[in-house]
Amino acid sequence: MNLILQAEFIAPDIKKFVIAAPLIARKAKPGQFVILRVWEKGERIPITIVNGDPENGTVTLIIQGLGKTTRQMNMLNSGDYVHDLVGPLGQATHIENFGLAVCVSGGVGTAEALPIARALKEAGNTVIAIIGAREKALVICEAEMRTICDEVIITTDDGSYCTHGLVTDVLKTVIARNTKPDFVLAVGPLPMMRAVSEMTRPFSIKTMVSLNSIMVDGTGMCGGCRATVDGKTVFVCVDGPEFDGHQVNFDEIARRQKQFANQEKISAEIINKEPQKVLHQCRLAKAINEISKS
Ligand SMILES: Cc1cc2nc3c(=O)[nH]c(=O)nc-3n(C[C@H](O)[C@H](O)[C@H](O)COP(=O)(O)OP(=O)(O)OC[C@H]3O[C@@H](n4cnc5c(N)ncnc54)[C@H](O)[C@@H]3O)c2cc1C
Ligand code: FES
């Protein structure tokens, strides 16, 4: 079990956790993720390691409460335990000095782009971050990105903060500048990553996307995260999560992402009705509680 040392909401339904996990913290590299279980019989979900701090033995995760498991997780607070974290999983991002690197992120994808932007900057790149969110309240990691990047451009779908529009509108203007990007990373919803890849394709700009396929074991055994890249089958959990956006079969991933839509809907209805009832308390925590009462 892993102790939660800090937990705070940084935006509506988006919570940042600092969790004790010394072995993972020691090995974590940008682009890698953990698979966590909130409780013993809980679902296993992949979450990106935003920061690994080997000195303090902690990892930072930023989680958007979307469905049952992420919302269960976001009910936990400092002093609570996560049942287990497995990681670091996946391939670390390939970092080199490309020249001008652009990190395009949408929603909670900005948390996933943050360690990669930092590593690109440390490797000598000029880094531009293009951050998109539905509205002002959902813009996350802005201050951190501003300390790392040479330029940060924010867009909101409703125009409530900075530029009104989509990240692709901004990317178009960045590509049209005198200096064309040498590398683009896109992290966020599938339609956004697909649109970014289509925008950079005619300019032959190297474009990596972080695929968010459904994962179960995270070790290449179950096949749940299967995707097709350049006509070949890959397992996103072990071969990725980042792939060449110009080679990804996005239609297939979009179809596979919807395969549990009915079960997700039922779970969401249960958690909407009785949120506290589904927050499992682990047996050890229960036992400690009972002993302390007797
Ligand atoms: C490599 C990777 C890194 C990720 N990093 C983050 C992160 O840092 N922060 C964050 O908030 N989210 C992250 N996600 C997405 C997160 O895993 C899903 O939001 C979460 O699994 C949803 O589970 P749920 O039960 O709350 O919602 P559900 O209602 O079950 O699902 C909501 C949506 O989440 C996706 N999803 C559901 N189950 C899984 C699963 N087992 N694996 C992957 N996707 C699933 C599906 O697209 C689904 O439609 C990441 C996903 C991947 C693949
Ligand atoms: S999650 Fe099972 S093979 Fe990738």
Keywords:
binds FE2/S2 (inorganic) cluster; 10 helices; 294 residues; five-stranded antiparallel beta sheet; binds flavin-adenine dinucleotide; Rossmann fold; 30% helix; 2 domains
Distance between the ends: 24 Å
CATH fold node name of the largest domain = Rossmann fold
**Uncertain parts:** none
> How many beta-strand segments?
17
Give the percentage of residues in beta strands: 25-35%
Counting DSSP H or I runs of 4 or more residues, the number of helices is 10
CATH superfamily of the largest domain: Nucleotide-binding domain of ferredoxin-NADP reductase (FNR) module
What strand line-up does the widest sheet have? Answer: 12-11-10-9-13-14-17
Total domains: 2
C-alpha-based Rg, rounded: 19 Å
**Structure classification:** alpha/beta
Secondary structure: helix percent: 25-40%
What is the CATH level 1 assignment of the largest domain?
Answer: Alpha Beta
